[in-house]
Structure formats: C-alpha cells, structure tokens
Q: What sequence folds into this?
C-alpha cells in the first residue's frame, strides 16, 4: 500500500504561501508531480507564466512539474492524487478543507495521506489542526491524517540549507511512508507517533517566540533570550503533558528545535511581532502591515483560555496574552515575570 514510486506518486498542495510553495519546490526536485492550489489569481498567473511566486518566495524558481490551479479551474482534474497537503493558516483551515470535501470524497480510495503543515490552534474551538481536518474530511480518511512540524524557516529550506523536521501520526506504517516521501539530503525528516505533542509544540512555540521578540524590542541580550527559551520550553512541556502528549517530544526537533529557531530567527514572523510590540506599535497596526500570518497572536488567546480552564500556570504565555489583548505594557510584563514568587526550578 505504501510503496514509493516517484514517477507515479502525485500530490496536491493546498496553499501557495511561503511554506506551501517552498515545500512544493522541495518535493518537485525529488521528481514528484505537484499540483499547487492558490485562491489568488495573480499568484496563479505568475507561477504559470514566470515560474515564480515573488510575493511569498522572492526569486525562487518553481519547476515545471509544479502545476498551479485556482478556483477557476476544474479542481477534479487535480485530485486524482495519493497525497494531499494542507498549507493554509489555522483560521481558514476548516473553510478550505470543506471547500474540497467533494473532491476528497470522490477520491478517497486513491488518497494515502492527508498531511497538515500549518501550525496553530483553531480560534474558538481551540482544536488542534489535525482534529479540525478530521471533522471535515470523509470518515474513511481520518486514519490517514499526518502532521509535519519542526524548525522549518521557509526561506532557509528554499536555499537548501540543511534542516530537520518531524512527521507524526498514530499510524506507524503511514508515518514511515511519509518520512520517505518528504526526506532528502537537505531535509531530514524524523518520525513520531505523538501527534498531540508535535502539534502542541508547533502551536505554542509561536507564543514564546512573541515573548522573545519583546525581549529583542526592549534591547535585552543573550541572557534574557536564553531565559525565555528555557522557561518557554518548560511551559510547552507542562501544557503538552496536560493535553496528553509524550514529555519526550518537547526535548526533540518539534519542541526544543522549533522553539529555538522561532525565537532567534530574524525571519520569524512571531518574533518580529513581539519586537514591534515592544517598540510601541499596536497589534492591529502590526497585523495589518503583514501579508503573512503570525499564528502566535491567535494561539496566545487559545492557550491562555485553555490554561485557565485546566488550572495550568503558564506565566510567559499569560504575559504575552495580556500584552496583546489587555494592553499590558511590555516592560511591565518583564517586571511581573521577574518578581514572581521564588520557587524550585523543577
């Protein structure tokens, strides 16, 4: 069932943002045929005519074995595939999956895997994204859902700089199949059966990255950043365990690895948001000026509410939430963290 033949495997990637496009190029270079969906007609035309997506991936060349399509094309032609990859922001995931429900129903016998590569929690329901997909796809496909997460700054993957990631599902055979599909000599993919932990890592690390950005914006240095990363990892782990995750996941690629990358990279959208907040800009103004989504903003609200319902103490997350949603002064948030009751580390 899970034999790999690069000449025969076809896949559709839903979402032509920075990560969706970069992943399409990475996989196309391995010889797979890729259908790439975008709702943006201008992006579609540019990929089709110029083999570029300058809005999201600058001058990255998009190989000919990537075929773009939009709502104006008969999507049925693009769903006779074995792998579906969703690469859209968390707040539109449900809408987009439901949009293609009929295509998924018609092709459910062919589909071997539905892979989600976005990170976050659904606003309102606070569900993990694999849970959102499970609610929206034909029930026969629920066991074929996987997630991909890790320290994957899209611009660095596009440059073919060495990076690692994790693919997770409860189906060991499927996870091994996708591990082989995705891996290359520049992109090493590990497997993990802890889909809860991998998704929690990918979502909550963005909240900690906002705190790291606040630190940068206030002019703090390495000691402060290291403190945020290590105590942030503690919050990730505590929250994840409460949600049913394996504690070991948080010291791995999806946890510590992604957390470090997101907190230190100048390309990190969430770190960038925190930096601008610390310099006095309002969150609405910041988000309006960005054409790519900083998932940590909405995730901070979801994690804060869950933590209160479950009585989990997450001081960094709480400060990020109050800075964004209650106009807490960033410098005051630092004071609150530093003057908390002294206690053992573990």
A:
């Amino acid at each position: 069932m899970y034999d790999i033949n690069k000449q025969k495997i076809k896949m559709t990637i839903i979402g032509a943002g920075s990560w969706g496009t970069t992943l399409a190029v990475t996989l196309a270079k391995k010889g797979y045929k890729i259908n790439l969906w975008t709702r943006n007609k201008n992006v579609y035309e540019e990929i089709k005519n110029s083999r570029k997506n300058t809005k999201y991936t600058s001058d990255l060349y998009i190989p000919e074995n990537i075929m773009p399509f939009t709502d104006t094309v008969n999507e049925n032609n693009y769903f006779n595939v074995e792998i579906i990859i969703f690469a859209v922001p968390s707040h539109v995931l449900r809408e987009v999956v439901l949009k293609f429900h009929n295509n998924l129903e018609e092709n459910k016998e062919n589909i071997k895997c539905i892979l989600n590569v976005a990170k976050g929690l659904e606003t309102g329901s606070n569900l993990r994204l694999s849970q959102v997909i499970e609610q929206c796809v034909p029930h026969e496909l629920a066991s074929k859902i996987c997630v991909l997460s890790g320290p994957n700054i899209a611009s660095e993957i596009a440059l073919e700089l060495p990076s690692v990631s994790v693919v997770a599902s409860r189906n060991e055979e499927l996870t091994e199949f996708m591990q082989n599909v995705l891996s290359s000599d520049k992109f090493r993919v590990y497997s993990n059966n802890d889909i809860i932990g991998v998704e929690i890592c990918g979502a909550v690390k963005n909240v900690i990255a906002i705190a790291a950005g606040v630190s940068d914006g206030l002019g703090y240095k390495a000691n402060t950043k290291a403190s945020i990363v290590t105590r942030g990892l503690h919050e990730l782990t505590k929250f994840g365990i409460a949600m049913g995750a394996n504690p070991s996941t948080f010291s791995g690629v999806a946890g510590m690895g992604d957390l470090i990358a997101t907190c230190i990279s100048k390309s990190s959208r969430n770190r960038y948001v925190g930096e601008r907040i610390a310099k006095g800009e309002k969150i609405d103004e910041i988000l309006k000026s960005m054409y790519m989504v900083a998932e940590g903003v909405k995730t901070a609200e979801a994690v804060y509410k869950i933590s209160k319902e479950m009585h989990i103490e997450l001081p960094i997350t709480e400060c990020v939430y109050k800075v964004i949603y209650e106009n807490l002064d960033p410098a005051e948030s630092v004071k609150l963290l530093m003057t908390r009751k002294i206690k053992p580390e573990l």
Remarks:
- The longest helix spans residues 195-217.
- The radius of gyration is 20 Å.
- The longest strand covers residues 163-168.
- The chain has 16 helices and eight strands.
